[in-house]
Amino acid sequence: MTTSCTESEASQECRVDPQPLRVFINYRHEDTWGEALLLFDRLANRFGSENVFLDTRSLQPGMKWLEEIKSHLPACGVLLALIGPRWMPSMRTREEAAVAEPAEDYVRFEIEYALKRNSGFNVIPVLMGDAIAPPTAQKLPRSLQALTKIEAEQVRPKRFEEDVAHLITRLDAIMPGQPVRAPVPPLPPLPPPPPLPMQDIAPSPDAAQLEVVLRHMVDVGNLVPVLGSRLTAPSAAWREGCGSLPDAEELAADLARRFSVISRHPSLPEVAQYVYVTWGRPDLYRTVRQILTADCEPGPVHRFLAHFPRMLEERGLEKRYQLIVTTNFDKALEKAFDDEEEPYDLAVYMASGRDKGRFVHFPFEGSPRPIAAPNTYGAFPIGDYGELERTVLVKIHGAVDDCVGDYRWKENYVITEDHYIDYLSRSPVESLVPIQILDKLRDSHCLFFGYAMRDWNLRVFLKRIWRGEPLGARSWSVEPDPDVLEKEFWSQSCVDLYAADLADYVAQLGARLAERTHPAG
Question: What's the pTM?
């Protein structure tokens, strides 16, 4: 850096000629060697290869690499600490080996040096991978614990260019040539605003709302129930092995506990991706199968929907059958219909096996039919105007290991982040979802049970079917404890949000239906 001051400028700040930013890439060869090379190329294109240091690219034959690395450290403005799946185990292995054969861990030395006060460095942790969790202070030596207080970047294989562009934007914001000062302690956080009363977030269902839903279910037949995982209250019963189904959060938490996944708010796709990448496909699928094939009883929503056709018949009402969509893997819905001895057709999306990427139709009578041409398939019991001759259950994200007749499937889950990305990227949707089901969905009102805004499978479902646009017909979502963000999310999709316990809600629908003896005029 050079400065130039004249006498007339004595009372003014000296002009500082800008210098290019210098970037040092810190990584472990056994962890992120290939990613480091790719990152070097992108950063060299932006900042110049002379301003980006990577040992395998910046060292010439004959150089004493340790001295060369140390000489470059003070000249660099930013140290990128690349952290992959083997970063922490490798450091522990070196610590244990050093007891018998003392040796310097140069990767650790470089980070420790850059973290020192007045080192002149900005340090940025970079998580290399889809489900790499940042290290926690408890698992790091004290000299590296400051690393956990720095906001990390993430570079994922399938979003490499986008993530690197975001990293470069952050680097561009750093002023080269200026020393990094000790961080100023943040101001204490403001107290959170008092929670809004539940009625200000979402009203409770009233008689008018219940009547509108029943009108579309009973009188018109153009309502499609869509089932999420939160169909019961948080289930201590499931944790105690008493037959209750886990919801998505409970399943994610259980997987995280079994496989030591560290995340403040684990989502099922994130945890499943981590287990898939670090432990392997067999471990993930075996564990999910063990959890979901337990003897779990259907809940009140399953029972109400399965009993619905018989209730109409007992009251002399016109027969109405439903298309019911579920993003769940378990068999609770099918079991409820089997217990009622109510016939149904089943459509299952196959995420694996010989029919991977297709739906398979399992008629109530007849052999399984893989659907190779969804936009022309017409064998579901659905008429030209959306009327159903029999209930159709649609499992749009796969199903737990099972068989129907001689047709068997296993490891059939859209569950990891990569699975959802692949599912979402298939286009057009008419090449995936059978046209009869797609038309029925788009021409109907939907009643969403047990979803929350943070559910990946809900967002993917809406994106696939309605291409991210609001639903074509006014629809409803019922949740036990919605928040403000969910209200905003649903309103953008043309969906009215109601706060109610799901068991109470279907009980009220059943009670009002029991009062009917003839179709409404």
Answer: 0.60
